[in-house]
Amino acid sequence: MIYFDNAATTIPYQDVLKTYQDVAMKIFGNPSSLHVLGTQASRILEASRKQIAELLNCDSEEIFFTSGGTESDNWAIKGIAFEKKAYGNHILISAIEHPAVMESAKWLSQQGFEIETIPVDDHGIVQVEALKNLIRPETILISVMAVNNEIGSVQPIKEISEVISNRPTITFHVDAVQAIGKIPKEEFLTSRVDLASFSGHKFHAPRGVGILYKKQGKSITPYLTGGGQEQHLRSTTENVAGIASLAKAMRLILEKQDQSITRISAMKSILLEELSQHHDVMIFSKKDNFAPNILTFGIKGIRGEVLVHAFEEHDIYISTTSACSSKAGKPAGTLIAMGIPVKDAQTAVRISLDDDNDMSQIEQFLTIFKQIYNKTKKVR
């Protein structure tokens, strides 16, 4: 099997699964309980929080645990909107955000908030000048993802941070779900970023656990009320085993980040070079200002889902861009925002690499690609 769908989900590390199992079996107390079993669980919980904070160069009090990226995005967008409603109702999001942000903003528009989208250029990168012109006195929130999940374009978070450096009334949220281990932290977690979303299963932790980074001093409306966990902002019994394994996965992925980026970039370069040789192949992911692991392309006249299943017959697994919207059969929203015609956007498929992949898999993929490409000649 060749697994090239790591942007959808990664295979958990064996050491991470062992951590999950050990904690789940041995540290099973509720962290809120007063007895020794609860104290043990609470210590693991806070040790994990401290480790993650150190890895992200922030304070432990700025780390809040969630069920994943979608919840973190929902909480950030909705929580800030209602917290700051008295100061304005204008929200800016990029035109290429994940559905977790897009749909949250759409829902807020039904609650009386005004949502505007920031355009992107033909490479899928936010136009900073356009963003400057969209900001108003009543703008309370800007949300721009760090790495686009559909084509891998890296967004200018540093530049945006500079633009709003003298606008303290604007909260800046970054969806960093695809960023950990793929681009340096300083590229997406600047001192001006107020909120950032992370999801464990994107970097070899189990599904169902994530993080919302919230800068100290930033107020946000509670997401869940009840027992008062997570500083009374997200009340629910914490997933201690999941959180401990997430902390371990983050440490492991960041320890080898530089080496991994070099390896993955080399594999992507070969794919780009070889795929570009074919006349009817459209490359949507470029090399500069793009994440090293994501390569999105299409074959003219061949719908993306057809290509996905053609590779699946050879035990090779790729994706039609976003995993969260692929079953809906819609063309990649990022490509549409870039000005790509719908008929071309419908051909898009995404390869997303990981450090677990190797050059022999790249060679095998390219061999099968050539076979599929030749078989589709009549259709093209």
Distance linking N and C termini = 28 Å
* Total beta strand runs: 12
CATH level 4 superfamily of the largest domain: Type I PLP-dependent aspartate aminotransferase-like (Major domain)
- The residue ranges in which pLDDT falls below 50 over 5 or more consecutive positions are none
Shape label: globular
Q: Please, what is the oligomeric state? A: single chain
**Mind summarizing the main beta sheet?**
7 strands, mixed
Q: Given the helix and strand composition, which structural class is it?
A: alpha/beta
Q: Approximately how much helix is present in the residues? A: 25-40%
**Fraction in beta strands:** 5-15%
Could you say what the CATH topology of the largest domain is called?
Aspartate Aminotransferase, domain 2
Reading the helices and strands in chain order gives: EHHEHEHEHEHEEEHHHEEHEHHEH
CATH class of the largest domain: Alpha Beta
Side-by-side strand order of the widest sheet: 2-8-7-6-5-3-4
Quickly count the domains.
2
Task: Give your account of this protein's structure.
The chain is an alpha/beta fold and 380 residues long. It folds into two domains: 128 residues, Aspartate Aminotransferase, domain 1; 239 residues, Type I PLP-dependent aspartate aminotransferase-like (Major domain) (Aspartate Aminotransferase, domain 2), CATH 3.40.640. It is 39% helix and 13% strand. The protein contains 13 helices and twelve strands. A seven-stranded mixed sheet has the order 2-8-7-6-5-3-4, with helices on both faces. Strands 9-10-12 form a three-stranded antiparallel sheet. A two-stranded parallel sheet has the order 1-11. Strand 3, helix 4 and strand 4 form a beta-alpha-beta unit. Helix 1 runs antiparallel to helix 8, helix 2 packs parallel to helix 8 and helix 3 packs parallel to helix 4. The mean pLDDT is 95.
